[in-house]
């Protein structure tokens, strides 16, 4: 598969604070493992079908399972949802644009009873 997914240095630097501390033996390369986990999930693959470039499929699964149970991925998503200083707006999908476009065409009635 030539279309493998790899996290960039900038992405890894942003994710680094959310990785659990390594105890004892150093972990297998975090970039390779996390890129492989993302690739498997994005493409709806079974762990067994993960490309060999990401390492053993059992290692990918074990990392995903341990980090999921420890809440690592939840903390990553929560942390990444906080805007950085250089990014004022965080958009997840086009829902924001659709709501804004709809809301801008609405007229507000003023002076009606109940206001």
Automatic annotation (TrEMBL):
Residue ranges of coiled coil: none
Transmembrane segments: none
InterPro entries according to UniProt: IS402-like_dom, Transposase_6_like
Stretches assigned to the Insertion element IS402-like domain: 7-76
Superkingdom: Bacteria
Protein name: IS5 family transposase
Organism: Ancylobacter defluvii
